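Long-time lurker. I teach an intro course on protein structure, and each term I like to show students one example going from raw sequence to a predicted 3D structure in token notation. This year I'd like something fresh instead of my usual example. Would anyone be willing to generate the tokens for the chain below so I can use it in lecture? Attribution to the forum is fine with me.
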Amino acid sequence: MLSAAERLVLYSTLMLASAAAWSVTWLQFSNLPVLSPFLAQVWCGGPWSADAAASSFVMWFAMMVGMMLPAVGPTIDAFATIARRRNARGAPYTPTIIFVAGYCLAWSAFSAAAVAVQWQLYRAATLMPPAQNVSSILAGAALLMAGLYQFAPLKIACLRGCRSPLSFIMTEWRDGHAGALLMGVRHGASCVGCCWAVMSLMFCVSVMDLRWAAALAVYAAAEKLLPGGDTVVAPAFGSAAILGGAALIGWTFL
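-- Reply from a regular --
Happy to contribute to a lecture. Here you go:
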């Protein structure tokens, strides 16, 4: 079992890593022409390039890490605890950072997919600079999709897995560095399956509006960590998103 001091170090490290990721996102946006001239060109309606796609990937990945790391703290804690117990019984020690790297790898795949979607929206002229949001009809459709997905069996199963860290670690344990990396990827994939529809709402407001990103991060943490997150918080959000999406689409056609 981790001592109080070790647990303090673990959670402090996670908070610092999340803060660093938020800082990278904020710096990239606030100093866009200096730090990322390729992405700035796209931000102003210019053509996409490999450099612009790479810059956009860094933006998405930093934002996802900043948003999701705090919510995965209990699972990382459970992994570190089990790894410590197994090491005390003579099993090889696996650094917790490898599990975290696997988790981040799953979100890097999501970030790459988000860049691809962003690129296609530009090509279809449906993502409008400089606000970087979609039309009201697409925004309403995205809200409807996110709301309906909250009640989907896949969402419910993924959320249940995210809310049961010790159960996941015990049933998915694999020895060695490669095993820890795979465990991290599998847990990250579960979190992506839980949150992808909510994160896609960034296209509705503004891809780089950090206020909305922070709000969605708080919501993601609430449904994973709070009592009733799966039975009250998630359904309430889903119902509100469905109503909001329907109202937005209806208002567009009035």
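Some talking points for your students: Residues 71 and 226 are 10 Å apart (CA to CA). The chain has one domain: 4-253.
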